[in-house]
Amino acid sequence: LAAAVLSGAVNMITLTAFIVLWFFVLWGLNYRRVPLDEKIAEFIAERLRIRGHRVDLIDTASAAADAVNPACQAAFIGGSVHYDKHQGALVHFVKNNLEWLNAMPSAFFSVSLAPVHADAGGRAHAQQAVDHFLEQTGLRPRLVRLVNGALLYTRYDFFKRMMMKTIARHQGRTTETAADHEYTDWADVEAFGDEF
What pTM, to 2 d.p., does this model score? Predict the structure, then answer.
């Protein structure tokens, strides 16, 4: 090759190196199994796979969470806020695995109905839930993202549906209870993955 370069037979050599990282994408589900947390985790995982990375998706409330091998190189961790708290299974998992989670790069996403992009008060309220989670668990992520959630009217019991309808009306969101309404900004979620 050196002789070819010296003789001018090779004008340019392009070396391409691919670095494949192994990511965990961890999420917590609440007792009603809110599918948006899982959908966001799957979305992040798919974007990482498209970029050629290995990804293991883990529901922290499942038996698979107990068998996690901490050999990955980075982790996305997330869950939704209900009554100002993240899921107990997520809190428990992070506390039990804190040493290796804090030893690697991590990012945390928090899903809530607080109007995180439109209202400073809502953003502050959502941030308080994140701050509480981080203080409670000791997790030190490199990046945190507040993600708009969904109104899942069809999954709520009568009283919660009426309560959520009242809150939605106050926030200027839809009060049509015959369908679910998703407010997630998927471009922002993708940007979160890219930033990390």
Answer: 0.82
The pLDDT mean for the chain works out to 81
Within 4-149, strands assigned E span 22-27, 54-59, 74-82, 85-86, 106-112, 143-148
Strand partners, 74: 23
Q: Residue 128 corresponds to which tokens in the numbers above?
A: 């308080």
Under 8 Å between Cβ of 27 and 59: yes
CA distance 170 to 168: 5
Question: With contact defined as beta carbons under 8 Å apart, do 143 and 112 qualify?
Answer: no
- Residues 161-172 have pLDDT tens digits of 999 899 888 878
| Angle of CA points 82, 89, 190, to nearest 5° | 70
User: Average pLDDT per run of 10 along the chain, which is 196 residues long?
Assistant: 38 36 67 70 90 87 83 88 88 93 93 72 88 97 93 89 88 87 92 92
Residue 184 has a CB neighbour count (10 Å cut-off) of 16
- Give the list of residues 6+ apart from residue 59 with CB closer than 8 angstroms, or none: 27, 28, 29, 38, 65
Write the DSSP string, 163-184: HHHHHHHHHT----TTS-EE--
Helix, strand and coil in the chain, % to nearest 5 = 45, 20, 35
